[in-house]
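Run Flippase-like domain-containing protein through structure prediction, thanks.
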Amino acid sequence: MTLPRGGGALSPRRVLRIAFLLVALGFGAWAVAGQWDAVSSGFARLSWRALALSVVAVVGALFGGMLTWRALLADLGSPLPVRQAAKVFFVGQLGKYIPGTVWPVLAQMEMGRDLGVPRSRSAAAFFLTMPVQLGSGLLVAAATLLAAGPGSIAPYAWALLLVPLLAVLLEPRVINAVIGFGLRRLRREPLERALTRKGMLAALGWALTGWIAYGLHLAAIIAELGSSVEALRLVAFSVGAFALSWCLGIMTVVVPAGAGVREVAMVAVLSPVLDQGAAIAAALCSRIVIIAGDLLCAGVAAATAARSVEKRQVDQEAGGVRVEENDARRNAL
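Sure, done. The structure for Flippase-like domain-containing protein is below.
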């Protein structure tokens, strides 16, 4: 006998999650509406082909970020199926549009707990993802901007001073010591498993893949806004320009998702290949495409994970019915 699936009152946790999504979507819509005139004029200069390529590349980049986080979480002892990992990561990441830095990690900790991931492990994976992306982003920016032209990186060489520090911090022995110290100060239990070099390398590999995809998304936009740079150099420049502007934006943690800071940095970095008006249009179009990508990934991941759970429940119920029918036949005999 199976119990009917039905509604009932929403639990406080479900109400809280719905409220989180509504607030995050509200701030995301506000970020778009506040610059809509400039954004719409920029999009008017883009072909549908360039826009489609940009969106596809952004989705690939966001997926690379999810796999970076997933690799760290798995190395810490909580491997998740891709569907479930995508739901936790992408839905949680919507919190970055809310002012403050705690919302994404709180959301990931809450959703991860439903999948058996300890909160301390979710928090560790979240905070480790940031320096992995920052360190890999600065390295990618240095390599690609130098390849595109030495003058492109010269004004921002000071940012590269962080690379040696991040390289030290990304050494697993150092990371494990820092995490252990932090947990002791917070009077929390230590992590069951320490981060390994293999796990760190896997995370760095996915992060590098994400930067390349982000560069392709920006190149598709720049190519339509008046840049005359040859294709390969434009791609290399775009990868470095996006990585550098993202890193500068993420250093300003008081602004939701680096809003404003990343765009200002991108306009400055794009000055060698675009005039100021086109650079502003490129920065704003890039931001809107990324917001759209965040929403698309979160929606698809949540829907896919929900269908997976529903299918598993149906299979379990069908299995239960078959067991009861077999028991009834045996009793009849």
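Confidence is low (pLDDT under 50) at residues 1-8.
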